[in-house]
Amino acid sequence: MLQSDIDLEIAAEHAAELAGKGLTFMGVDIFDATGFWMLLLRFAFNMLVCWTIIQFFYYKKSRRKDYYFTFMLFSVTIFLLLFLLQSIPMQIGFALGLFAIFGMIRYRTETVQIREMTYLFVIIGVSVVNGLSMDIPHVSVIVANLLFLIVVWTLESNRFFKHISAKIILYEKIELIKPDRYNELITDLKQRTGLDITKIEVGHIDFLRDTAFLKVYYKDSTDEINTIDNITRFP
């Protein structure tokens, strides 16, 4: 074959294709520079967003290190799972399956409260978005994550919503639970507890012991979530 018979354009395409292929082992690339850096950048971005939500919104009020640990590991696991398996043709079904599975989770060791379950769902959602958005423009992904942060910040901010705590009290002055003595009941409990009580609900009444269970709602100046606030009945 004469040198003049060689198509320079075709030769250049083959050369570029060969140059773009790295070392392989059993048909799989050993190292892909583009995919490697994309993994690191997406992972760092996802961790930054999830850490911001957990550190500045959840942990600031709850102070629960156990859930801090859980949320961060959920974020890492979900992101890597979806990012590395995104080439498999089951992206949408797999993502929806994760939402369904974790939406039904109930840890048997203790009851997971609504707030923790909500944050768990948010962390899963952020990680799914960042793990499956390879073909979506970077600006759209950044805006989606910013929307997560803005909505969580808005709902957690005291500028828009005031947090009201609640406690269960076993009360012995049963004569004050009558509706016409409601104001006296609030005054008595304010003096005895020192809490800024806004509302009282009367629950179980035991006339044999002259006691009643009251659910007391009050404004907490510390703005922290007290785990005992979640107790709704006496064990």
Descriptive notes:
By secondary structure, the chain is α+β, with helices and mostly antiparallel strands. Helix content is 53%, strand content 14%. The protein contains seven helices and five strands. The longest helix has 30 residues, at 33-62.
Properties at a glance:
235 residues; 3-stranded antiparallel β-sheet; 7 helices; 5 strands; elongated
- Gyration radius, in Å: 28 Å
- Bin the helical content: 40-55%
**Structural class of the secondary structure composition?**
alpha+beta
Number of helices: 7
Tally of DSSP β-strands: 5
Main β-sheet description: 3 strands, antiparallel
Query: Percent of residues in beta strands?
Result: 5-15%
**Physical arrangement of strands within the biggest beta sheet:** 3-5-4
Mean pLDDT: 79
Q: Low-confidence parts, pLDDT < 50 over ≥5 residues?
A: none
Q: Distance between termini? A: 92 Å
SSE series: HEEHHHHHEHEE
Outline, from the CA principal axes? elongated
